[in-house]
Design a protein that fits this description.
The protein contains two helices and two strands; from the N terminus they run αββα. It is an alpha+beta fold. A two-stranded antiparallel sheet has the order 1-2. β1 (24-26) and β2 (29-31) form a beta hairpin. The longest helix is centred in the C-terminal third of the chain and has 14 residues, at 38-51. The relative contact order is 0.19. Residues 1-47 form the DJ-1/PfpI domain.
Length: 61
């Protein structure tokens, strides 16, 4: 997961893996760090939506 650096310790203490990247995609979940990362976040979201349903994800009706 990406986030503000100030949240690194909290995320790691909760069992997360913290990365310092403008966008991180993990099995369809897209995260980013800060407002400046919004262009990369939006591009990753478009890619994930275009990719469609992934195996193991819950299907919607």
């Amino acid at each position: 997961m990406t986030s503000y650096p100030s949240l690194r310790t909290d995320i790691m203490n909760a069992g997360g893996i913290w990365v310092d990247e403008e966008v991180q995609v993990d099995d369809g979940l897209v995260t980013s760090r800060r407002p400046a990362d919004i262009p990369a976040f939006c591009a990753a979201m478009v890619d994930e939506i275009a990719a469609g349903h992934r195996a193991g994800q819950m299907a919607t009706a």
